[in-house]
Write a structure and sequence with these properties.
The chain is built from five helices and five strands, in the order αββααβααββ. By secondary structure, it is an alpha+beta fold. It starts with a helix and ends with a strand.
Length: 141
Amino acid sequence: MLVDSSEREIISHALGAGHDGNIIAQVGSSGHKVTRQAIKSLKPGVWVKDEVINSFFHLLSKQDGELCKKDVTRKGNAFFNSFFMTKLLNKGHSTCSREYDYDNIRNWSKKFVPGKAIFEVDKFFFVINVERTHWVLAVVD
């Protein structure tokens, strides 16, 4: 990948010295903030922080919406944040006797599904944190 000098400078600044809590980027008007600590998680051998993944999904969602505006016959996609599967599977709650708990995500279509119509969506994208050691992207078509 070719990176020009201005991009290299931005990357060096983000990964360089400074307080880990510094906000390096804000994605969209909804306030997806990416801290220096999160950006540093993109270095090799480091666990990628969920705020980076969620911000990237937010960007993908916005881009998908723009593509749908340009082509009104195109079906939109839904991009769920990294907490979707945790909530659906009710992780961390020993009182749940079922394999999943739909009530935990019942209203998520209002936030993550374009037009709030799940049957009008082309694909659903969500990430799964596998035992806090690996991220997996799932796509439901």
